[in-house]
Fold this protein.
Amino acid sequence: MFWILLGLFFFSNLSQINAIDEFTVKQNIDYTVNQTGDTEVLHQIEIINNFSQLVPKEYSFSLYGLNPLDIQASDSSGPIAISTTVSSIDTQIKLNLPRAQAGKNQVTAFSIRYRLSGLATTKGKTWEITLPQFQSSLKSNLTVNLKVPLSFGHLSFNPKDSTIKNDSLYSLIRLEKFDSAQKNVFIFGNIQLFDFNLKYYLENQNSIASLIPISIPPDTSGQKIIFTKINPRPQYVESDNDGNWLAYFLLSPKTSIKIEVAGQAKIGSHPVPVIPPDSSLSEQLYWPVNHPEIKALAAKYTTPKSIFDFVVSTLSYNDNRLNSSTRRGALESLKTPPDSLCTDFTDLFITIARSAGIPAREIEGFAYSNNLKIKPLKPGTDLLHAWPEYYNPNTSNWVAVDPTWTKTTNGVDYFRDLDLNHLAFVIHQSKSDYPPPPGSYKANPQEKTVKVVFATSEINPDLSPPDFSVKFVPFSSGQLIIKNPNLQAISNLRVSSSPLNLNKSFSSLPPLSSQVINLSQLPFFDSLLPQNQKLNLSVSYSADHQKTIEITNPFHYLNLLVLIIISLIILSVGGIILSRNA
């Protein structure tokens, strides 16, 4: 089932009516969702006569995708008889209007009640509701109200024209301007949790030992990663300039290795102010920023929204190309717009945006989809998807959008909000094709190496403090080496020491990674003081962790030795001089 089997469609008509202005129709639909996701629907209709000689006699509509239960119709005088016809694709409901009001401006009012099973569905830690689309042959003023339990959580994704307020038990959402041509999707929940298992195959074809990197899912402003397994352990992990996490493995000559990486991703928006690098505007292999055709488009479409709308309206998704692993780039996608995949939507958005002076980059990763034709994924690398991000200077952070899914879902607004079902594997900013994402490191192209499922519970392992060691460099400054022994990042790390005049901060220290700080020397005589034999480092990290670390001052004993040697030399020279004068 895809989003309640593509939603419910209401096709309304009144018999003996040809002109849409002969009646004014006002409709109000209330959806009340219970704790299990089942929904009570109250559909209230008012038909106002615009002419004295016309009277409505019949009303009918069809529900597609779900089977309505316990259908009842009534007006102020009592029940109204209904008839239903059920087929494999819809349920047709028809009711006569025996008490229709005659006369101009007279109102025929009635209501229809029914139940819908499963309108709200759980997806991991979230609830998702797709309201039925409403299509009518009559001009209609339609208001929609949605009532859901507060236990569903925070409203994290909703149509732009909706308003929300809460009472003690429910969230109450109102759509005054219900767009019948759009799908109206609501997602409730603060976070999403995914468990992942990734497999990699590396081969060193060189005749010498080589360090070979793989990409592993990184922390971003929208996700937090905790690994439960990286087997075998890498030599080290580092973060590149784009924010990717790269794990390096040492392979002997002419050898291969299989690597397994498992963990959990916590998806939720936590924007972090950043300054985009110059590389977020540069031309790349699949992003021909300086091509005349692209420059012409960039001169016309100058905002992220206008670029997004152009891409969505220009390209069409072709699921027949799902078995093709060829990435075309922005220019090729413009040559044959009907043959586009998610990478085409993404490449075209990024290229025009960069040409217009808007920093943009590509995210490749996993996006949960229960219908690959409607929410398609990237072919060739397991079940991966690609979407762009642009930089918003007003908020100083990256904003993720998904033009592919806006196109294929027939208008769900993935520009204003991105749902909690997108998990980033790699960030392509400095280069349009590096690093390759998980799913690309295979011995057999047909092998599935990416597995992502909804997590049933959140893991919260203890966070060990960073390891500190001092590397002594004779006749030079020493080095403080900080290592993260955890399988998760240490965030907001700060190291300070007054005697060393040290105050360093790191926004994140990736798992199994290290940082090196050059230590300044204490003044010679200060270093000899007993209290400076050991030095205290004040360490704070990950919001609520604080610790004092004691390290040996490498210069204390060296300078003490130097002082002793100098003193001995002075005493020896002094002794010689005195003996000669005696």
Residues 134 and 180 are 5 Å apart (CA to CA). Helices lie at 3-6, 292-300, 304-314, 329-335, 342-355, 403-408, 524-527, 554-581.
